[in-house]
Write a structure and sequence with these properties.
Number of helices: 3
CATH architecture: 2-Layer Sandwich
Strand order of the largest sheet: 2-3-1-4
CATH topology: Alpha-Beta Plaits
Shape: globular
Radius of gyration: 13 Å
Helix content: 25-40%
Order of helices and strands: EHEEHHE
CATH class: Alpha Beta
Number of strands: 4
Structural class: alpha+beta
Distance between the termini: 16 Å
């Protein structure tokens, strides 16, 4: 099985950016402790602080499946969805 890379871009409503980043930093720290998580970074665009990115690397699909089914995933999504203007996720492979 090959490593899975995911880049997620969030366009956050300006009044919620600080709360979103705080929530996602906690989420990233918990995710990095999961078996199979190779990388989980939260980044903020320099030219637009309301654009936040995740860069994730997972050992394999099985590790990502376990992560995706954790209760905190649904809880976080329920919390942050009203804070967003848009969201994009892209699965990547090494070129």
């Amino acid at each position: 099985m090959s490593r899975i890379m995911i880049v997620v871009e969030f366009e956050v409503k300006p009044q919620h950016t600080a709360a979103f980043i705080a929530l996602m930093k906690d989420h990233a720290a918990l995710s990095r402790a999961e078996d199979g998580c190779l990388q989980f970074d939260v980044m903020q665009a320099q030219d637009n602080p309301n654009h936040v990115f995740f860069v994730e690397a997972w050992r394999d699909q099985a590790a990502l499946d376990v992560h995706s089914k954790l209760p905190r995933m649904a809880q976080n999504r329920e919390t942050y969805t009203p804070w967003l203007q848009n969201r994009w996720a892209t699965r990547c492979t090494m070129a």
